[in-house]
Amino acid sequence: MKPTMKGTARATTAEADRWRYGERHRRVVGPDGQEHFETVPLRPEDLLFPEEGDRLVSTKGHTRDCTYLEEVLEQKAGSKPGTLVLRDHHVDFGVKGIKPLLPDVAVFDGVQDWTSVAGSSPSR
What we know:
Elements: E1 22-29, E2 35-41, H1 44-48, E3 55-56, H2 60-78, E4 83-87, E5 105-109
C-alpha cells in the first residue's frame, strides 16, 4: 500500500509563502549603534548568488533531478581527461561584473590542476 499524506503538503506560490526559497541572516546596526542579526527571506536571484550561511530550500523533485543529471554527466563526461563535473559549487567564471554563481550541475572541459580540497575554481 502506498503511504499518503492527506492535507499535509501542498505547493505554495511566492506570494503566499515569502520563505519558499530559504532564508538569510543579515547583520543590522540599529540607531543606537548596537549590532544584531535579522532573518530575511531569500529572493529568486539569491538562489544563483547565495552567500555563506544562506539556507536554501529544495524540493525532493529538484534534488532527484540534480542527482540524476550529475550521475549521467559523470558517466558520460566525467571519465574524459580534463573534464570536471561539479554540483552545488560556487563557480567564478571570471566575467567582469558577474558574481560567482552556484549552478546545480556544471560540466567543464579543458580543466587543469583542479584542487578539490581547496575548492578552487577550475583553471584553464
